[in-house]
């Protein structure tokens, strides 16, 4: 049986066994006939669960209820490195919300937080810009925003600082604050 893949139907819940050699075609559920290449993507604004075909993910799908763009990522997205010179353009003039991780290479908690920031950049690539600011190399921006402890995360919406978190916090805590700033994008 290792030559088979099991996929659960999102409509009826039936487990479907599909041979590996047929997996790359458009498979359907053996019980209800629903295509098995669809994904359920929740809308970040209204919470509606949207069924989106795998081949339509790259066409910027919209929520069926409120019309907002759905956050879909297919590749790993890394945080953007911002500097004193690029901060105004990348953060203050951004048309989407921005999360800035203020860090330094010598900081142990910053290094521990780094994989979480990378995950958030990938998870919310279409809904928020995630960036990193090295406070040692960019003292102007760090002092302008009063960064005295690191790691510090700054949340910007429409070019304005709306939230600040300090410390190596769990992903869930950062994500909760992130969702607050992107719900009404």
Quick overview of this protein structure:
By secondary structure, the protein is an alpha/beta fold. It has helices at 87-92, 108-123, 139-144, 171-182, and strands at 4-8, 15-19, 38-42, 49-53, 80-82, 97-103, 128-134, 152-157, 160-166.
Features:
single chain, 185 residues, alpha/beta, five-stranded mixed sheet
Please provide a written account of the structure.
This protein is of the alpha/beta class. The chain folds into two domains: 4-59, no CATH class; 80-182, Glutaredoxin. The chain contains four helices and nine strands. The protein has helices spanning 87-92, 108-123, 139-144, 171-182; strands at residues 4-8, 15-19, 38-42, 49-53, 80-82, 97-103, 128-134, 152-157, 160-166. The strands form three sheets. The chain has a five-stranded mixed β-sheet. Strands 1-2 form a two-stranded antiparallel ribbon. It has a two-stranded antiparallel sheet with strand order 3-4. The model has no long low-confidence stretch (mean pLDDT 83).
